[in-house]
């Protein structure tokens, strides 16, 4: 499975979880209360982190790709960071960066 990844900074995590759950038609796949939320849809891997001073800013983009041998990142010609990772790698990074997530379907 290959999904496009978008990571955004948000003003309020709980309010954003409600808003984006309605927009995406499903609850987040994983939530670390106060720190992080992520949705996996058929085509999209979408994550948010609270950062009031950067609310609405694109943090980075990339691809969740189960064929990715390991996490990698690079910066494009416009200064935007692109990441490539497997779902397993992302799940491990969530725990190491934010703590254990509450998992949904």
From TrEMBL:
InterPro entries linked: Glyas_Bleomycin-R_OHBP_Dase
Name assigned to this protein: Cadmium-induced protein CadI
Annotated organism of origin: Pandoraea eparura
Record gene name: cadI
